[in-house]
Specification:
five-stranded parallel beta sheet, three-stranded antiparallel beta sheet, Rossmann fold
Length: 221
């Protein structure tokens, strides 16, 4: 176990990102598991917190195995893992149907989490993309490609834990990769958390609302 829970991971990740405090940053979390981690980063850097709505595309008979990822937008970005698509025997029709299902879930989450609020302006800013860990990295790859299209000044990928090779794979996707641990053997992200309970929709909404509330004004003496 490396982290007690996502709060512990978020606090440690925030400490590693402390040199960015005072810069023009935006923190984007991958829901749902990345939101509690990212909330600590955003609070420590005094930066706005928002979401990147990305969904993995699970294999037809092995939904936990990601054969691709998709991110919302007028022109959704789809990442395909051709090797795993071939290994799992997923047909093109199945892949299209799975994409449609995940886009519908993204739209549900957009309405529920964000209530129609427009996405934050990223042009010229330092954009920190946060998740609670990486496994295949497909979801993060889609997220970073979508961020790049919005013309940020710099992209930082920040995660508490990832397999040794995966973090290195993102050196070309992000301008800076911050990963606290790359244990081996890896197996699964949850293995490195004492508490890895699922984050609920209500948790996500609460964390976003809490981050958006302005700090209370100081009383005049």
């Amino acid at each position: 176990m490396l982290f007690r829970d996502r709060d512990d991971a978020g606090q440690k990740l925030a400490a590693a990102l402390a040199p960015l405090k005072g810069r023009d940053c935006v923190v984007l979390a991958l829901p749902r598991g990345g939101v509690p981690v990212a909330a600590h980063v955003a609070a420590a850097l005094n930066a706005p917190l928002d979401l990147l709505l990305v969904r993995k595309i699970g294999a037809p008979r092995q939904p936990e195995l990601a054969i691709g990822s998709i991110i919302d937008g007028g022109n959704p970005i789809i990442i395909r893992d051709e090797k795993l698509i071939a290994l799992t025997g997923a047909s093109q029709a199945q892949f299209r149907d799975l994409c449609a299902q995940e886009l519908a879930e993204i739209e549900r989450r957009r309405k529920f989490y964000l209530g129609g609020r427009p996405p934050p302006e990223l042009k010229g800013k330092i954009v920190i993309v946060v998740d609670d860990g990486l496994a295949t990295g497909n979801t993060m790859r889609a997220a970073l490609q979508a961020v790049r299209l919005r013309d940020p000044g710099k992209i930082v990928m920040a995660v508490p834990v990832a397999p040794p090779g995966v973090a290195e794979d993102f050196r070309d996707e992000a301008d800076l990769v911050v990963c606290l641990a790359t244990p081996e053997p890896f197996e699964a992200v949850g293995r490195f958390y004492g508490n890895f309970e699922q984050v609920s929709d209500a948790d996500v909404v609460s964390l976003l609302e809490r981050q958006r509330k302005p700090a209370p004004a100081l009383m005049a003496s």
